[in-house]
Amino acid sequence: AQSVAQPEDQVNVAEGNPLTVKCTYSVSGNPYLFWYVQYPNRGLQFLLKYITGDNLVKGSYGFEAEFNKSQTSFHLKKPSALVSDSALYFCAVRPPGANNLFFGTGTRLTVIP
Amino acid sequence: GAGVSQSPSNKVTEKGKDVELRCDPISGHTALYWYRQSLGQGLEFLIYFQGNSAPDKSGLPSDRFSAERTGGSVSTLTIQRTQQEDSAVYLCASSLGGDMPYEQYFGPGTRLTVT
How many domains are there within chain A? Predict the structure, then answer.
């Protein structure tokens, strides 16, 4: 069975500090990996995705994520957090042969001024 | 250009009533998805449409749920005989195609409350 784990419900970080939002997955084969962000009262917005190739992918708003096949992880990172980054972040996987995404339960990021 | 739109934004209904939720995907997107987001949970896949192919209904939780997509564009999700556990935010997404890993673009959702 496919599953995505976001082990932290809440992450707090000071403005200007680096941030990491963790994601691990359990999927057969080589999945496609995604990060989405949800701001209050708004729909999910795509941040970045890993398909193949370089393990470090860069996305919108200065975010990046590192794919680690041996650890089956796809952690989201940003070198310097902004207060405006405060939102709910979802990791998602698309297993080989599947059409839909399987989402984690989300991590609420709060950047403290 | 216009994004994915959904209507209504909020729907309150009595237990046992039927509801219809509408999704207008981005023009040119052949793939359309419905998800459900319940409080404290991640997004749960419901159904997927790709062009004129038969939909993937594997995520529908019961036979009270159904969806259709007319003319390869607008989609309607119907919940019959609503139950309180159906209360959630229903999200629609569209993408350029089903086979390739294109990102999905999400609408703002319809918040359904069953009383």
Answer: 1
